[in-house]
Write a structure and sequence with these properties.
By secondary structure, the chain is of the alpha+beta class. It has a single domain, classed as Jelly Rolls (Sandwich). The protein is 24% helix and 21% strand. It has an 8-stranded mixed beta sheet with strand order 1-2-10-7-12-5-4-3, covered by helices on one side. Strands 6-11-8-9 form a 4-stranded antiparallel beta sheet, with no helix packed on it. α1 crosses α5. The longest helix has 28 residues. It starts with 14 loop residues before the first strand and ends with a strand.
């Protein structure tokens, strides 16, 4: 049985070297999984290095993000998210409020997911966040790069979920049943500089937790990400070249019966230059049932936490911003 112990108050975010996780040696993979286990219990955040995604891909995507966000607003609105049935496309500044009661977030974004046709069964069912992407007609290279990056990050996320399973003493393929129709969202984000927290607690991204399983974040050298530790202090997660920041979402405490953490974080860009980042959110099939893994419950203990990925995400789709589209009026949150 997995034993619960209170998290330690971290003063920094650990770095996990993934090199051994690609080894054919099960002991080497298990050793990396143990490092993830420790980070997941203490902060729910960790960096990963030696992850296999070429640096040139990362650098090029951040340059493309800067090019896109520098366009005139009317050009970006050619792919306005309001025109999408599945939350894809351009999201203007101050469209989202992640910290309830605060002013809208000081950021703009562009997001894609799996590009699904109108005939796809989940699109026919009207399942949220399933459908076609929107693209900017004048930037075909942006589509090429984003689709390639999304697919690379999906593969990396699948690998990480295998390590997450190992870290919980489960087989590496524990999550594979949820992958044929997985959910993935990749976002380009732009945070203008701001000297401090502004009136109304306005931040680049207000304090929040992510909803699903894992988030993999590419951030530029500007930094600005802050993570809440077990003592209630905000600690910095600065840019480390060649790494991603990984954090666990709200489904992971359900999966682990509270052992692993989904931790609050925020973004405050106090630098005098623009900040760009690219988070990718990876979740399993909307119909996949999340419940505590074997061994996480005491003998005879019954769990009331089992929930489908879709039911959980749908319950979270009513918090941070309201948009009106030609298709319907909706209130929905898209994580930052």
């Amino acid at each position: 049985m997995i034993i619960y112990t209170p998290p330690k108050a971290a003063t920094s975010i650990p770095v996990v070297d993934l090199a051994g996780s690609f080894s054919p040696d099960p002991a080497a993979r298990k050793a990396v999984a143990w490092e993830i286990h420790k980070a997941a219990r203490d902060t729910g955040f960790f960096y990963i290095e030696n992850h296999g995604v070429p640096q040139a891909v990362l650098d090029s995507l951040l340059e493309t993000a800067a090019t896109f966000f520098a366009l005139p607003l009317e050009d970006k609105l050619a792919a306005d998210i309001k025109n999408s049935t599945c939350y894809r496309g351009y999201e203007p500044l101050a469209a989202q409020t992640l910290d309830e009661g605060s002013k809208p977030d000081n950021k703009e974004g562009f997001q894609i997911g799996r590009d699904l046709s109108a005939e796809h069964p989940k699109v026919v069912r009207g399942v949220a966040n399933h459908g076609p992407n929107q693209w900017l007609p004048g930037m075909p290279e942006m589509r090429t790069e984003l689709e390639d990056y999304r697919d690379r990050m999906t593969a990396l996320g699948r690998h990480l979920l295998g390590l997450l399973a190992l870290s919980l003493d489960q087989p590496e393929d524990y999550f594979e049943p949820g992958f044929p129709e997985h959910v993935v969202t990749t976002r380009l984000l732009h945070y203008p500089p701001q000297p401090a927290v502004l009136e109304g607690n306005e931040l680049g991204a207000g304090a929040h937790t992510d909803w699903g399983l894992i988030t993999m974040l590419l951030q530029d050298e500007v930094g600005g990400l802050e993570v809440l530790n077990a003592d209630g202090d905000w600690i910095r997660a600065p840019h480390i070249p060649g790494t991603f920041v990984v954090n666990l979402g709200d489904l992971v405490p359900v999966l682990t019966n509270g052992l692993y953490r989904s931790n609050a974080h925020r973004v405050l860009n106090t630098a005098e230059v623009d900040r760009y980042s690219v988070p990718t959110f990876l979740d399993l099939d909307y119909d996949y049932v999340i419940e505590p893994v074997p061994g996480s419950l005491a003998a005879g203990e019954q769990s009331s936490q089992a929930i489908t990925v879709g039911d959980h995400l749908a319950a979270m789709l009513h918090r941070t911003y309201t948009t009106v589209t030609p298709h319907r009026t909706r209130t929905t949150e898209i994580p930052a």
